[in-house]
Each structure stands twice: as C-alpha cells, then as structure tokens.
Amino acid sequence: MDFGLSEEQTLFRDSVARFLGTEFPFDKRQGAVAGGGGVPDDHWRAYAELGWLAAPFAEEHGGLDGGAVEVALVMEQMGRALCASPYLATVIAGIAVARAGSDAQKADVLPKIADGTLCCAIAHDEARARHDRARVETTAGAAGGGYVLSGTKCGVPFAETAGLLLVSARTSGKAEERDGVSLFMIPRDAPGVTLSAYATQDGGRAGDVSLHDAAVDAASLLGAEGGAFEVIDLAYDWSAAMACAETVGAMWEIHAQTLEYLKTREQFGQKLSAFQALQHRLVDMYMRCELAQSVAMDAVASLERDDVTERRLAVSAAKIQVGRLGRLVGQEGIQLHGGVGMTNDLPIGHYFKRLTMSGLSHGDIDWHLNRYAEIGAHELHNRPPAG
Fold first, then answer.
1. What is the distance between the alpha carbons of residues 88 and 10, in angstroms, rounded to a whole number?
2. pTM of the model
3. Closest CA to 281 of 351, 333, 341
C-alpha cells in the first residue's frame, strides 16, 4: 500500500509543523497546562485560518474536501509538540454530524466548526461501559414533541470548551444492545445539563456531564431514532486511529530528543552516542517508530473505505500495535535519559504520560484484542467453504 503524501498534503503537514514548532514550544505548553489546559484563543483562530478545522469537511460546508489523512497529519504534529487541545474532539463530533446529520444540521454546525466559532465534543462514555460502545444507560424519553434526557457521561474530552455536545441516550432496548441508541445535539449550557471539569494526567482537560431531565426538541435528534450505534462506532474508530497518529508523532519526538541527549551527555570521556550498545537501542527505537507509523497510517486509510469490517480490524490492529510500541519507546526514552528522565523538567516524562493516556483511550489494548479476535472468528465462521 502506498502511504506517500501528495504535494498538497506535504505542504499542509509542514505548515502545521512550523506553526506548532514556533508558537507552541515546551515552555509555552507547560504554561498552558498550568493555566487550565486547552489552547490559547489566538491559536484556535489560527487553527481555523490555516485550514486545520476545515480539512475533513465538504467545501459546501466551509471545508477543504480533505479527509482522514489530513486530520492524521495534524494529529501527528500535535503529538510531536505535545499539544493538548479540543481539536480532535471537535473534528470527530463534526464527522458524526457530517455522516448522520440532516442537510439543515450540517449547514448549521459544520461551517461553525470550520471557521473556529464552535467547539464540540461527543458525550458517550459511561462509568459502567468499560469501553463497550453499545452500553448506554442514559435515557431519552419522548415528551411534548421532543425528548427528556437523564444520565451521566464520563471523561468527555474538553467538555468545558465545547459549545455543543453530541449526547448518546437510549430511546429503546436494553443497556447493552446496539439498537435503540440515539444521538442528540445539546448546547452545553442547556437547562438540566451540568458539568464537572477536571485536568487529566497528560495535561489535557475532561469533564463529567450530568443530565437531569434535560429537555430538547425533536430537531436536536441526529440521524434516525435508535440508529446511532454505527455512527458512534465510526466516530470512535476515527478517534482511535487519530490517537495512534498522535502517538506516532510523540514516539518520533522521543526518539529525536533521546538521540540529541546522547550526543551531548558524556561518560568515561566519550559522548554516550559513541557507545555501540546505546546505538543499538536507538536503532530499535527507530524501527518501532517506523512500524507504528505504518500500522497507524493503515488504520487512517481504512476510515475512508466502505468495508466496515476492514475498518474495525485495521483500527484495532493499530491500537494494539501502536499501544505496545509506544510504551516501549517511551520507556527507552526515559531510561536512556537516566535519572533526569524521571523529572518534570524535561519533556520526556510528559511524553510518556501522553502515550499512556492515549493507549487507554478509545478502547485499551485488551478491548481491541478482544474485538479483533471476535471479528476474526465471525469472519472465519461465515466464510464460504473452499471449492
């Protein structure tokens, strides 16, 4: 498979790298984290002006007619810069609207995302779900021509920044069934919606969203009633694949910073980079970065294909492999930095925190292993007999 970038994609990637390298060095990143996380307002406006937010959407909705690759290029560079922002949460919510929304909903929401005037987030995870995307206990009952929602969503990324939440709720069926799950577009400050925001271990922000008889009108329903599972599953596969792309960027930066450290640090009168054993370990790190990038790009490419089974297999394979490789590269980076790698003064430890959080989000390694095995067993069972 050819993972080569077009000239336009290469220029786009390089512009993202230049902006983050200039405007978001490590000291500014630490200042943003200390100030409550997120991204400065002027940076968010720049995201819109540079086309990052518009990249995956249709031109008729203010987009650039790009796709998954363009979003992945942004995420990889954000991984290199250790940039925590509402970018991915907003874009993924926009993808859900683009796939499931009516023409009126698309025309209302997507241009606002593209021009940077609206941040969004999908509020789906619940305390007892354990990565099960079908398990939804939040309820939405019909009332007065609309719906009334009650329940709690956990770990909604950058929920306090979002002006619009895409909330999943069960309109029929049992808690673990795929059928009966619906999506609703609800303003974060709507009556009956409360938010508890907090910092995450990797310098980001998240929040728990509680709905207490939150009333919405019928126009807030996104897609068909009870038929939201497929778009939620797609959105979470997008999130998982983009998390892999971000992890790859962080892995490459860990390798680069570790190499630079070994070139400057001396022991026994020689640079550490002169020791053959350490050179071998750096080569191992490099090969792991290359392998992670290959499987991550395969997952990103699968998002644009019509074959749902192929997409799920590719995304789960990437999440498993990139999660394992990222942990190994992060551990090597810290060990090769020695004791100073354990401090907060150098970026290495912060990168490792981000890799750890990324590995646990959108389904951890164990969950994706189980999904991969279940899909493979199902495909094998339903394969037509040979001959």
1. 20
2. 0.93
3. 333
